[in-house]
Give the backbone structure.
Amino acid sequence: QVQLVESGGGLVQAGGSLRLSCASSGSIFSIGAMGWYRQAPGKQREQVARITSGGNTNYGRFVKGRFTISRDNAKNTVYLQMNSLKPEDTAVYYCNAWPNPFPWGQGAQVTVSS
């Protein structure tokens, strides 16, 4: 069973940046497409971005050029660079396979203060 461990979250002021990492216990190249998701209090989990094994990316409309997803297949790690953060980006961020997710990890808390 693949385990995914997110890290890099924290508290940042509006306009700041964070870089999230997601380490996989299994080969992400074999898994295929990977995605970052987020869940804010009282809201449903939503996809933030996804990336295929070949590096093709898709982003949620709310990202608007602020975030960049990337992957290092050799390190079995997926990244999410988040710039120009807004208070509405506050959420727990998760990574997982797309479209068939594994059991969800603990996630990384991102809190953006105004």
Q: What stands out?
A: Residues 4 and 105 are 6 Å apart (CA to CA). Strands lie at 4-7, 10-13, 18-24, 34-39, 46-51, 57-59, 67-72, 77-82, 91-97, 108-113. The longest helix spans residues 28-31. The chain has a mean pLDDT of 96.
